[in-house]
């Protein structure tokens, strides 16, 4: 019983081993052969040890292809596999990196597309704003042209108004002359009527005398007749005097003026011209009025008002405001040559100021009066105006007075008018201040501005006749006089 069981067990073990070796031999044929060679003697040894022996014929597998016998192949394949795995891991990491970069680039591309859309919208908006800005610029240019046209019309209207005012004054003078002529003619008619009455009386007296002579021809007393003759002679004499007066009235005389003068000049001891009003005072003329001046080193003749009743006299008045009768919103040429009425409001002229202040050292005195009658003054110990090539730039000295210093801020500044903008402001100060002045940015004083009645005024800009240190810029002064005097 033990022998068959043992044989059966050995058979099963052999079959299992053959199955395992067959499987391993498919991969390692050389190793299977060597193992088979080693097992064969063991089997013989086993068979010899037992009581029975068996011989099994196992079919050999057919191998195709080249057989490589190497004892180190397994180790080489494992290292290559590790290297391949490492390479695969690296390539996987690179692939992941590329995926991440691709995702980043995709997000960047989407952001770029968004930015491009925003840029296109911004470009469209900028184009729209540029078009609006261009339209605004064109509109402002048109408004500026229209404003300049209106200002030109205003200046023309102002000049026409001044011309009409002058013509009106001429008509007033002619009307006064006609009125005086009518009055004289009425006087002549009265004299003629009196003369006719005297003639009638004389004729009646002659008739009465002749009748009396005829009636008393035999009377020896000649006294009444003598008296009648004397009456006749006196009547004839009165008649002759009346006729002589009428002839003298109608007789033209070259000594009498044909037209009443508009400006009354003072009677002077010497005819002039003088260098300035100080020269007039030194010549013995101490009456304030209009005098003929000619500055030294100049052939210019000019008329100016000489003020001898203030501050020891000898002052040449270069500007005066008192009733608003003259418009001071003028252009450059008018401020250069001067304008206004010498016995009222006027501006002497920048060119005249230059020649006057070039011949000696002058001081400036500004006299002001408010609407309550308070008078103040501001005096500067030197005053000079540069030539037109330097835009009549103002040069001032030190201040003294009780009005406050509102002119030193304008020192060393060029003169500015509506058509010559020489101030430091971005706009034209003459346009806002409605005058011509040595504007800076823009004015602490504006003595050539608009003359408002009553003092405090309401205006869009500070364009009144003001002195900032005296009542401020919203108070228009009643009277202002600028005058210079040689030191």
Question: Tags for this entry?
Answer:
two-stranded antiparallel ribbon; 8 helices
List strands and helices in order, with pairings.
Elements: H1 2-25, H2 29-49, H3 73-215, H4 223-250, H5 277-282, E1 289-293, E2 302-307, E3 315-321, H6 332-337, E4 339-340, E5 346-347, H7 350-358, E6 362-369, E7 375-385, E8 394-396, E9 399-401, H8 429-433, E10 445-446, E11 466-467, E12 479-486
Antiparallel strand pairs: 1-2, 2-3, 3-5, 3-12, 4-5, 6-7, 6-12, 7-8, 7-9, 10-11
Helix pairs in contact: 1-2, 3-4
Notes on the structure:
InterPro entries: FIB_ANG-like, Fibrinogen-like_C, Fibrinogen_a/b/g_C_1, Fibrinogen_a/b/g_C_dom, Fibrinogen_CS. Keywords: Coiled coil, Disulfide bond, Glycoprotein, Secreted, Signal. Its main location: secreted. Residues 130-181 form a coiled coil. The chain is an alpha+beta fold and 487 residues long. Among the domains are: 89-194; 277-486, Gamma Fibrinogen, Chain A, domain 1 (Alpha-Beta Complex), CATH 3.90.215. 50% of the residues lie in helices and 12% in strands. It has eight helices and twelve strands. Strands 1, 2, 3, 4, 5, 6, 7, 8, 9 and 12 form a ten-stranded antiparallel beta sheet that branches. A two-stranded antiparallel sheet has the order 10-11. α3 (73-215) packs antiparallel against α4. The longest helix has 143 residues, at 73-215. The model is unreliable at 23-48 and 218-265 (pLDDT under 50).
């Amino acid at each position: 019983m033990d022998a068959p069981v043992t044989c059966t067990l050995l058979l099963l073990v052999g079959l299992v081993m053959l199955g395992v070796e067959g499987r391993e031999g498919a991969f390692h044929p050389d190793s299977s052969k060597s193992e088979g060679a080693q097992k064969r003697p063991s089997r013989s040894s086993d068979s010899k040890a037992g009581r029975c022996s068996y011989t099994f014929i196992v079919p050999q597998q057919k191998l195709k292809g080249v057989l490589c016998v190497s004892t180190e192949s397994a180790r080489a394949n494992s290292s290559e596999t590790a290297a391949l795995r490492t390479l695969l891991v690296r390539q996987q990491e690179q692939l992941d990196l590329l995926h991440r970069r691709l995702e980043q680039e995709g997000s960047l591309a989407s952001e770029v597309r968004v930015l491009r859309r925003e840029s296109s919208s911004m470009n469209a908006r900028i184009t729209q704003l540029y078009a609006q800005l261009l339209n605004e610029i064109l509109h402002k240019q048109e408004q500026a042209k229209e404003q300049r046209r209106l200002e030109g019309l205003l200046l023309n209207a102002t000049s026409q108004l001044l011309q009409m005012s002058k013509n009106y004054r001429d008509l007033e003078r002619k009307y006064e002359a006609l009125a005086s002529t009518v009055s004289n003619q009425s006087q002549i008619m009265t004299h003629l009527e009196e003369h006719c009455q005297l003639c009638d009386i004389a004729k009646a007296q002659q008739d009465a005398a002749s009748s009396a002579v005829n009636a008393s021809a035999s009377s020896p007393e000649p006294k009444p007749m003598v008296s009648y003759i004397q009456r006749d002679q006196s009547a004839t004499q009165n008649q002759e005097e009346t006729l002589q007066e009428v002839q003298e009235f109608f007789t033209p005389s070259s000594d009498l003026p044909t037209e009443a003068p508009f400006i009354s000049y003072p009677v002077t001891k010497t005819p002039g011209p003088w260098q300035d009003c100080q020269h007039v005072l030194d010549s013995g003329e101490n009456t304030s009025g209009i005098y003929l001046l000619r500055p030294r080193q100049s052939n210019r003749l000019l008329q100016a008002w000489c003020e001898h009743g203030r501050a020891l006299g000898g002052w040449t008045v270069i500007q005066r405001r008192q009733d608003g009768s003259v418009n001071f919103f003028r252009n450059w040429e008018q401020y250069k040559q001067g304008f206004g009425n010498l016995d009222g409001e006027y501006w002497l002229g920048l060119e005249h100021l230059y020649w006057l202040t070039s011949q000696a050292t002058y001081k400036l005195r500004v006299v002001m009066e408010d609407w309550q009658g308070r008078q103040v003054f501001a005096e500067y110990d030197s005053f000079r105006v540069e030539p037109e090539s330097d835009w009549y730039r103002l040069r001032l000295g030190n201040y003294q007075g009780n009005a406050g210093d509102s002119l030193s801020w304008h020192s060393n500044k060029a003169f500015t008018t509506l058509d010559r903008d020489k101030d430091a402001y971005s706009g034209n100060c003459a346009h806002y201040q409605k005058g011509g002045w040595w504007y800076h940015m823009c004015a602490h004083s504006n003595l050539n501005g608009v003359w408002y009645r009553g003092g405090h005024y309401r205006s869009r800009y500070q364009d009144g006749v003001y002195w900032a240190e005296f009542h401020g810029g919203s108070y228009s002064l009643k009277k202002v006089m600028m005058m210079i005097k040689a030191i």
